[in-house]
Design a protein that fits this description.
By secondary structure, this protein is mainly beta. The protein is 9% helix and 37% strand.
Length: 398
């Protein structure tokens, strides 16, 4: 078996304009590392590699496989995870190398990133992540029951399926579940907040524009809260405007007649519970399936196991790992099945690991550049990304 490992490894051999990974001379490693470290305080400039975070390209020439790994120390209090949206402040798609530039300066400097969740695409709606996403404490999408990754209020990483208990409590006490920031069908209730964009993109139904009622908690929307909301306006044509100070409760036309009718000045409660409870989480990102639980490879009965480009994250007792496997390139890398990927995560020492979107979306960015060879010859836009950020000194001191 021919294997190799290189750090910050690139090659002049290209495919579709992209650099191909391979082992290179140590002198070039020093030069490249010095170039990557030539940065000031600008968030968008590449960060300097440090001893507590590393990038490695592992090559297995026999299969072949080209595997890209970012490893960093869990004990570093000055590092954090941050999730981005493809549209910047709002939903949409963009390549990972562009999404890292949207990380606010006050959050810190991006060190590494991978593409995130699978996505939903609906006519007339922005592309949205398929499952839960939390960014700086704000919940952007509701849990859809799939595997998700977050760090709890106790500081411990978590990976499990998360379900939504989001609901509206009407003035008479009746409750109705709702979705958050997704295409509203004719028989559904959806709550829209600013990350959806300037308007709800809906047609027909009944929409209640909600504002804060009294001095209770208000936006941005967070998990595990009960919000008291007052109806500011009632609309029946759809496509209501959404602002940073308002939410819109949208009811499909088939369902509207069965629910209480509200007037301007009416109040409702908006409850954002989940199971398990994600209250206090600074970030969360969905994906799946889970690859490793308790150090054991998961099983997938009835699945067809094919090799594709893959993206995953995982952790051991001491480190976090971001992993990307190139694929669909016969002369470079075949890709992995879920079982092969899970086996590799265990080999790294991961006790827990989760798959993220793969295929053409599979991307790993580190220290200022995309390190893998995307299967389509260039980066494919993604709905979100998971970014490792070095906090600025003020944030790190908190």
């Amino acid at each position: 078996m021919k294997t190799g490992r290189s750090t910050f490894s690139v090659s002049p051999i290209t495919r579709g304009g992209w650099l191909r990974p391979r082992a290179i001379h140590a002198g070039w490693l020093v030069l490249l590392a010095s170039l990557l470290g030539a940065s000031g305080e600008d968030t968008n400039r590449p960060a300097k590699p440090e001893h507590y975070i590393s990038y490695t390209n592992e090559i297995n020439a026999d299969v072949p496989w080209s595997i890209h790994i970012v490893k960093f120390d869990r004990a570093r209090s000055d590092l954090r995870f941050y999730t981005t949206l493809g549209g910047g402040e709002v939903m949409g798609t963009d390549v990972v190398s562009a999404q890292v530039k949207s990380v606010p300066r006050e959050v810190g400097k991006p060190l590494a990133a991978i593409n995130g969740d699978f996505y939903d695409a609906a006519e007339d709606y922005p592309v949205r992540p398929h499952d839960v996403q939390i960014r700086s404490g704000e919940v952007l999408t509701h849990p859809a029951g799939h595997s998700s990754f977050w760090i709890g209020a106790d500081g411990q990483p978590q990976l499990t399926n998360v379900t939504s208990r989001f609901r509206i409590v009407w003035p008479g006490g009746q409750t109705t579940p709702f979705g958050l920031n997704l295409a509203r069908s004719n028989d559904a209730v959806v709550l829209f907040t600013f990350p959806i964009g300037k308007s709800t993109h809906t047609k027909g139904g009944v929409e209640y524009v909600l504002e804060a009622s009294g001095t209770n908690d208000w936006l941005p929307l967070r998990i595990g809260k009960t919000y008291s909301a007052r109806v500011r306006a009632v609309q029946t044509e759809g496509d209501s405007p959404v602002t940073r100070e308002t939410m819109v409760l949208s009811i499909g036309p088939k369902l509207a007649a069965t629910l209480p009718a509200l007037r301007i000045g009416s109040t409702v409660q908006v409850i954002t519970e989940t199971f398990p409870d994600l209250a206090g989480a600074d970030f969360a990102i969905g994906g799946g399936p889970a690859l490793v639980k308790g150090g054991k490879v998961m099983t997938w009965k009835g699945w067809v196991h094919l090799r594709h480009p893959r993206t995953a994250l995982g952790w051991s007792k001491t480190h976090f790992y971001l992993v990307q496997v190139d694929g669909r390139q016969l002369d470079l890398s075949m890709g992995m099945t879920f079982e092969e990927l899970a086996d590799f995560m265990v080999k790294l020492g991961c006790e827990e690991a989760m798959n993220l979107d793969g295929g053409g979306s599979s991307t790993l960015w580190a220290f200022g550049a995309v390190r893998n060879s995307p299967s389509e010859g260039e980066e494919r836009p993604a709905p979100n990304a998971l970014v490792v950020v070095k906090k600025n000194p003020e944030a790190a001191a908190k």
